[in-house]
Design brief:
The strands form three sheets. This protein has a seven-stranded parallel beta sheet with strand order 1-6-7-10-11-12-13. Helix 11 packs parallel to helix 13. It has a single domain, classed as TIM Barrel, CATH 3.20.20.210. The protein is of the alpha/beta class. The chain contains 14 helices and 13 strands.
């Protein structure tokens, strides 16, 4: 089977010839490890600095080249590709405070993470922050409904169009997009979660505004030849949901359902990316009609065997190899993960092989190689892992 046929078959809950493999997120070190050259793909602070320096075309050229070459080198069936930075708008460089700290134009401080190499919020300037009002949110909603949202300029689609032109005939093309999570607001994560409880009267309008933005983007991806979209809004931590699941059921599930309906009408599959322990959200994800669930965090209690038993007839399950083991474990840990996930997730189709989160900074080369070998060793149908 060609890779795209393999994915299409498993999404239909039938058995392909081989378990398909794909990743929603791959950091630059993986490209450099496998391809043996410098890469800007998810290059973290290196990519950010390059864009500040006006080297946007160099960054995009790396994405166009390296996404395809890595897929070929590792044997991916799915290529995940998103928008490119616009050629019309150069980002404003932040002020460098010290070796690892930067300040933006409104006084927010950012630091380069030692673990991920990403420029991350460190201290947010909350002075002058004004919370939304029902009236203000309604004005935004009315404006969106009346005027819509213009599609980003052509340069934003440069990488995606290249990958579609080069690999659409053989591979499944997936795009990570904005998703709808718990509706809230606030300058910091802590305030956002607190405000879910403190401002219940705003939740319907917040959910509607988020949904309208997400719905507006769907036709863009269909026009560009994407096969599936992956809404990326996390719903929980490793111990449970961020908020009461009744909020999802009341305010978010109706919009999820409409989103999936419109995506299917456009010929797109919809695969929910979500980290954390989300057992209480899964009935709503299934009822909304999502085609798959990716980001299955085994370390958060999301067990592949139980997922297949409870939801395997309604969702394609995408994951299996512990993110933590790729970074901190051994090849033997990877082999055990692969055997367990393929044994319980793959029979009958409806299973895509991948990490429980991403191929990230810190991933050991021997663990990635064992991951590749295990797919080829255990993922052949009919599944015979005991």
């Amino acid at each position: 089977m060609l890779p795209r046929e393999r994915v299409k078959t498993t999404l239909a809950h039938r058995e392909p010839d081989l378990v398909p493999w794909g990743e929603h997120s791959i950091d630059y070190n993986i490209y450099e490890m496998v391809l043996g050259r410098e890469s800007f793909v998810q290059g973290k602070i290196r990519e950010t600095r390059a864009l500040w320096e006006g080297r946007r075309d160099e960054v995009v050229a790396s994405y166009k080249r390296d996404l395809i070459d890595l897929a070929d080198a590792l044997g991916f069936d799915i290529i995940t590709v998103g928008q490119s930075p616009s050629a019309l708008h150069r980002p404003t460089p932040m002020e460098q405070v010290d070796e690892e700290t930067y300040r933006d134009g409104v006084g927010n401080l950012y630091r380069v993470s030692a673990a991920t190499h990403q420029l991350m919020p460190y201290k947010i300037n909350v002075e002058g922050y004004q919370p939304p009002t029902i009236e203000g949110l309604q004005e935004q909603i009315d404006r969106l409904r009346a005027e819509g949202i213009p599609k980003p300029d052509d340069s934003c689609w440069e990488t995606l169009r290249h990958v579609v032109s080069q690999r659409k005939a053989t591979h499944w093309i997936n795009s990570c997009v904005d998703g709808m999570g718990f509706p809230s607001f606030g300058p910091t994560d802590e305030e956002r979660y607190m405000n879910i409880a403190l401002y219940p009267e705003l939740l319907p309008k917040l959910a509607e505004l988020s949904a309208l933005h997400c719905l507006a983007a769907l036709p863009w991806y269909a026009e560009e030849g994407v096969d599936s979209v992956m809404p990326c809004a996390d719903l929980g931590s490793s111990t449970g949901l961020f908020a009461n699941p009744k909020i999802l059921e009341q305010h978010v599930k109706p919009w999820w359902t409409e989103y999936v309906r419109q995506a299917h009408k456009l010929g797109l599959k919809v695969i929910k990316h979500c980290c954390g322990c989300i057992w209480e959200a899964l009935p709503h994800i299934c009822d909304a009609g999502f085609d798959g669930y990716e980001g299955i965090q085994a370390s958060g209690g999301m067990d592949m065997r139980l997922l297949k038993e409870r939801y395997g007839d309604r969702l394609t399950l995408w994951g299996g190899i512990w993110h933590e083991h790729l970074l901190l474990g051994t090849p033997e840990d990877i082999e055990a993960d692969a055997q367990y996930a393929i044994r319980w997730g793959a029979p009958g189709g409806g299973f895509i092989y991948g990490s429980s989160h991403s191929l990230a900074v810190g991933c050991k080369p021997e663990n990635l190689e064992r991951m590749r070998q295990c797919r080829e060793r255990y993922g052949v149908y009919p599944i015979r892992v005991s």
